[in-house]
Amino acid sequence: AGKVVKHLSLSLFGSRFLGSEEHAGFLYVHSTLQSLQGLPLPNQPYLFGLLVHRAEVAWAKAFPLRLMLRLGAEYRYPCPLYSVRFRKPLFAEIGHTIMRLLVDFRNYRYSLPMVPGLTVDLEAQRTCIKIPTTGYNELMKALNKSNEHVLAIGACFNESADSHLICVQGDGGQYQTQAISIHNQPRKDGLMVQITVETMAELRRSLREMKDYTVTCGRLDQSDSQELVCIQWVEEKCTVNKVISPIDGKSMESISSTKMFQKSEYKENGKIIRWTEVFFLQRGDHLKGGTTDSAEHNRLTERIARAFCLALCPHLKLLKEDGMAKLGLRVTFDSQEGFVAGSNGQPLPAQYLNALDSVLIPVIHSRGRKRGDEPIVMELIFYILENIT
């Protein structure tokens, strides 16, 4: 049906799935600290699907990180990359939990807001909440929607932590906190911080102004037992794209990109070609702010993608059989306009490049170069898939 999935998103299926009424679907996760040795893996980007029990769906929808870490406690830290069919559910009825106040478990009209990249470090007498500067807009949305007296935000998986707090529900429905770690070292439990109205106002003001803030907890006359809760803004390292270019194997790790969802279908001989992403290797300043130029450029990019798909449609079966299922098209707009296309780190064979020449060159030249335009280089990624409809 063309649904795009990402880390911690969910696919749910009908009443009976994989031999059981209790199998609800898959929770998708990135691999982090698990060993991938010996696994037959596709090229990046890819996700692992973890089988979700029907009783766990509420947590998978509202707070998937909680379910992911609970699976890690049951099978392997920080979460398994395999699924166990016919297992018992790790969570039952929602029961008595503060999460009932923060999440609408009945209709899911509201849930716990998440800030991408926000992490929490628990240390001895110090708790550090790290917020990436790139998450400012999402944090402001959460701040503006929150109750005046309560600020509740879901954190992300912290890859640098040596252990994680997890939520375990007992047979009686009660929740308790446990810790899982690489080194099997015992850890302290989590905490709730209660602050004055004045401190809450100062905290909110600091967040809006993107300033660090520290809350001192404990009795003022016992400085040795005081604990600090530090809110810090950090520059997030860009590790979003683990993709490498199909054209020459170049890493795309620090390059901004946009995921594409192609509306039109291009298929032939039981195969289908899809445009999935565009990377901006070099973009002119006018694309960063000018909406008119940017919209015009987007239309041109779509025309280039359409021309690429149409030109290769007659060759999809042969390309796929020859192991060229992932394709890259790098287009350059400067004094020497042109393109290069490839797969598996090599340029496409001449017969395919010739087919592309006749349709792509006119589209690329149609842009029209203006005086003072900065060079633009972008790379479009395509996949050839089996047409199962």
TrEMBL record:
It comes from the Eukaryota. Signal peptide: none annotated. InterPro entries: SARA-like_C. One of its GO terms (cellular component) is early endosome membrane. GO terms for biological process: endosomal transport. Residues 41-364 form the Smad anchor for receptor activation-like C-terminal domain. Pfam families: SARA_C (PF11979). This is Zinc finger, FYVE domain containing 9b. The lineage of its organism: Eukaryota, Metazoa, Chordata, Craniata, Vertebrata.
